[in-house]
């Protein structure tokens, strides 16, 4: 996972997914992983904007256990509100369910 360090708003990260899931599975999907710690224990609002694909956002603990998942069917942007312990490391996972090669996304901490 790429280490983003300690996050506080406003924060913006952009990227693209080189491949998306197909045939109802995540097998071919590009998974982007980011490690981070929140600056405070206050709730974070994470927003994932996407273009030309269905990209999903999830927050996991350092062991990979799912904390919150914004996976929604469709091309609507996703938004998660979550309070996390600033003393612990956390993971963000962005993965493409359906879309075109090089589906673009933008992650914002609001």
Q: Topology of this structure?
A:
Elements: E1 2-7, E2 11-17, E3 31-38, E4 44-61, E5 66-69, E6 78-82, E7 90-109
Parallel strand pairs: 1-3
Antiparallel strand pairs: 2-7, 3-7, 4-5, 4-6, 4-7
Report how far the terminal alpha carbons are from each other.
22 Å
- Please outline the major beta sheet: 7 strands, mixed
Low-confidence stretches: none
Which structural category fits the helices and strands? mainly beta
CA radius of gyration is 13 Å
Order of helices and strands: EEEEEEE
Strand content: over 45%
General shape: globular
Query: How many helical stretches?
Result: 0
**Average pLDDT level:** 87
The overall strand count is 7
The percent of residues in helical segments reads under 10%
Oligomer: single chain
Verbal overview:
The structure is a single chain. The chain is mostly beta strands and 110 residues long. It is built from no helices and 7 strands. It has strands spanning 2-7, 11-17, 31-38, 44-61, 66-69, 78-82, 90-109. Strands 1, 2, 3, 4, 5, 6 and 7 form a 7-stranded mixed sheet that branches.
